[in-house]
């Protein structure tokens, strides 16, 4: 995981901080399949900050819906830190948000294109689509299982977004 102290549930604090700043959030998800957006939506007041989310599970949709460079995808595949960054930047631009968070990786049960189960890349950009970016790579234990990896990726994405926007 990361060296960051654990926040019990980062979503409420993320929504609170964004609302205080008058800023908005977009979400682009692959392996988490909507879990990050759902965690934000579960927080009362989320409508003040969440612009929307894109679940681009298929590789071609990362290019079509989130403007990830097709050449990048053909060179590195969908599981890569640069793809996570491009997904976040695309979500910020397409959904008109100040900040965006993106997830991509392998939840299992099998490795994908030479990437092991548990390899996860999370990116946060903003404020603004050309704003600064934070990207982390996680090597989660395959023993967590598919659901556990997806849940851990969701929590890391929310915590990283909170770190990026400031608490």
Set out the fold topology.
Blueprint: H1 10-21, E1 25-29, H2 35-41, E2 50-55, H3 59-66, H4 70-76, H5 81-95, E3 99-105, E4 119-125, E5 133-139, H6 145-165
Parallel strand pairs: 1-2, 1-3
Antiparallel strand pairs: 3-4, 4-5
Helix pairs in contact: 1-6
Annotated CATH topology: Maf protein
Instruction: Give the SSE string.
Output: HEHEHHHEEEH
Give the C-alpha Rg.
14 Å
Tally of helical segments: 6
CATH architecture: Alpha-Beta Complex
- Number of extended strands: 5
Structural class: alpha/beta
Strands of the widest sheet, in order across it, are 2-1-3-4-5
CATH homologous superfamily title: CinA-like
Strand content: 15-25%
Describe the model:
By secondary structure, this protein is of the alpha/beta class. The protein has one domain (10-165): Maf protein (Alpha-Beta Complex), CATH 3.90.950.20. The protein contains six helices and five strands, in the order αβαβαααβββα. A five-stranded mixed sheet has the order 2-1-3-4-5, sandwiched between helices. Helix 1 runs parallel beside helix 6 (145-165).
Gist?
It is built from six helices and five strands.
Descriptive key words:
167 residues; 6 helices; alpha/beta; single chain; Maf protein
């Amino acid at each position: 995981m990361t060296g960051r102290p654990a926040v019990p549930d980062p979503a409420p604090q993320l929504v609170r901080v964004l609302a205080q700043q008058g800023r908005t959030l977009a979400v682009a998800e692959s392996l988490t399949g909507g879990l990050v957006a759902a965690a934000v939506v579960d927080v009362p007041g989320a409508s003040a900050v969440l612009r929307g989310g894109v679940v681009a599970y298929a590789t071609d949709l990362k290019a079509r819906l989130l403007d990830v460079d097709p050449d990048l995808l053909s060179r590195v595949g969908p599981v890569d830190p640069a793809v996570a960054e491009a997904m976040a930047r695309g979500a910020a631009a397409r959904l008109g948000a100040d900040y965006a968070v993106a997830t991509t990786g392998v939840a299992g049960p099998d490795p994908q294109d030479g990437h092991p189960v548990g390899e996860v890349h999370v990116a946060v950009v903003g404020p603004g689509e050309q704003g600064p970016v934070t990207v982390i790579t996680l090597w989660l234990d395959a023993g967590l299982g598919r659901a556990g990896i997806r849940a851990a990726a969701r929590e890391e994405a929310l915590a990283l977004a909170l770190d990026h926007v400031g608490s």
